[in-house]
Amino acid sequence: MILIGRSNWLPPRQWKLWSLPRTALAYVLAIDVIAVTITALAVRSTVSGPHPGVRHAEWVAFVVLAATSTLHLESARSIERRREMAANTSPHTNLKCLWTFAALLLLPLSLVVPLIVLSYCYSWFRVYGRTVAHRKVFSASTYILASAAAAAVLRAGGLLGAPRVPTGFWSLLVVVAAAATWWLVNYALVIGAILLSSPEATARQALGELSDQLVVCAGLGLGVAIAAIQSSYPWVVPVLMVTVLALHRDLLLPQYQRAAGTDAKTGLATSSYWASAVPAELARADTLRSTVGLLLLDLDRFKEINDTYGHPAGDQALRAVGQAIRAEVRNGDLVARVGGDELAVLLPGASEPEVLEIADRIRERLVSLSLSVSTTGRGMAVINGVPASFGAAIYPEVATTMDQLVLAADDALLTAKRAGRNQIVAARPHPATAEQPESEDSDRSVSD
C-alpha cells in the first residue's frame, strides 16, 4: 500500500512549479534564491574565515550523519510515502530535522547545507516522486534558511565552536532557543507557501495538526542527544537508529495504519482504505496539476476455482494474484481489494500509455501464473493461469470526480468482459455535455 509515484527524472521546465499562482511562484523562487545566497556565504566564510577549512573531526561527523540519515530515509520511506499523500494543504512534517539540527551543533553551516541537499535529493529519487521535485527544492531551501537562523542564535549565545552541545544552564537555554528558532522559521515559510499556492486552503488547514509539530519538537530534541553522543562516541550514533525508527513508526505511522487496514487474505489495501485514499490522491493531483490513473480488474471465472478446489484454494490464489500485481506496479502505486475477486490499482501521476503498459504487464503475468494450492479433500493441485479483465480510466482526462472516475473504469471493465475477457479497455473522455454514457464502441481496447 504505497501512494507516491516512482521518481523518474523530469526536466525543470516540466516541473509543476510553473503552474503555481504568480504570487506563490515569486515566493517560492525568492526562498530558493535566498537559500542559494546563504549557501554561497557559508562556503565563503569557511574558506576565508579566521579559521579556514574544515577539521578532520567535522568531516568524520559529516560522514556519520550523512550515512545514518540516509539509512533512516531508506528504512522509513514507505511510511513517508503514505504521510506525504496525506499532507495536501497542510505542512508535511518529517524527522529529517533531527539530523539537520544535530549537524548544526557539530558542523559549520557550509557542511550542514550539503547534508540537507543530500537528504532531499535521496528523498526525491527514493521516496516522494518526480511530480513533487519543486516542492522538495523548496523544502530544502526552508531547511537551509531555518538552519541559518538557528546558527545565528547559537553564535549570538556565545556557542561559536563545535561541538555546541549543552554543558550548562546557559548553553542549554541557547540550544533550546536555536531549536525554537529553527522550528518557527521553517514552519512559517511552509505555511506561507501553502496559503499562497492553495488559496482555497483555510488557515486551520495550513497550520496542520499540533501533534505533527510535537513530532518535530521531538526530532529536534533527539538531534541534540545525537549531537552530544556524536561529539564523544561517533560510532555509537548508528545504534540510535533503532530508537529513531521506533519513534518514526510509533509517532507517525499508526494514525494512518489504523485508518488504512490491510486485507487479511491478500495483504492489499482494504476497500475502506481505498475509499478514503482515492479522493485524497485526486485532491493532491489537483494541487500539483497532475493526473491519476485507475485500473479496475476482475478475475475471469474465479468462481470456478472456488467451486473446483474449494475456498481455501481460492484464498491462496487471491494472495498470489495480489503479490503478482504488486510485483508489476510502480513503487508508488496503491493496490487494493475492493470486492470478492475485484481488485484496483491507483497510479498517481500516470498517463494513459503508462497505465496501459502496467495493465498489460499485470495481464501477462496473471496469464502465466502457476501456483500450487491446497484443495478441499483432494490434496495439492496446480492452477495454471488466473486471467483477468481490465478497465482503465485517467483523471482528469475522462472524469473530474471520484465517482465518475470509478464509473468510467467500471464501464471499461464491463466492455472488456463482454469482448471475450482477458483484455484491457481504456475509457475515452466523455463529452462534457453528454447525458448518457458512451457506447462500448467508443472505448479503446488493448487485447492479447
Q: What's the structural blueprint in terms of helices and strands?
A:
Blueprint: H1 22-48, H2 56-75, H3 77-86, H4 96-106, H5 109-128, H6 133-156, H7 169-197, H8 203-207, H9 210-232, H10 241-252, H11 254-260, H12 271-288, E1 292-299, H13 302-309, H14 311-328, E2 334-337, E3 342-348, H15 352-367, E4 370-374, E5 380-384, E6 388-395, H16 402-418, E7 423-426, E8 444-447
Parallel strand pairs: 6-7
Antiparallel strand pairs: 1-3, 1-6, 2-3, 4-5, 7-8
Pfam families: GGDEF
Domain GGDEF: 290-429
Organism: Kribbella solani
Report on the architecture of this protein.
Mean pLDDT is 79; it is low at 1-8 and 432-448. Helix 4 (96-106) packs antiparallel against helix 5 and helix 6 runs antiparallel to helix 7. 59% of the residues lie in helices and 10% in strands. Strands 2-3-1-6-7-8 form a 6-stranded mixed beta sheet, sandwiched between helices. The two termini are 28 Å apart. It has helices at 22-48, 56-75, 77-86, 96-106, 109-128, 133-156, 169-197, 203-207, 210-232, 241-252, 254-260, 271-288, 302-309, 311-328, 352-367, 402-418; strands at 292-299, 334-337, 342-348, 370-374, 380-384, 388-395, 423-426, 444-447. By secondary structure, it is α+β, with helices and mostly antiparallel strands. The protein has 2 domains: 12-260, no CATH class; 271-447, Reverse transcriptase/Diguanylate cyclase domain (Alpha-Beta Plaits, 2-Layer Sandwich). Residues 424-448 are annotated as: Disordered. InterPro entries: Diguanylate_Cyclase, GGDEF_dom, Nucleotide_cyclase, Rev_trsase/Diguanyl_cyclase. This is Diguanylate cyclase (GGDEF)-like protein. It comes from Kribbella solani. GO terms for molecular function: diguanylate cyclase activity.
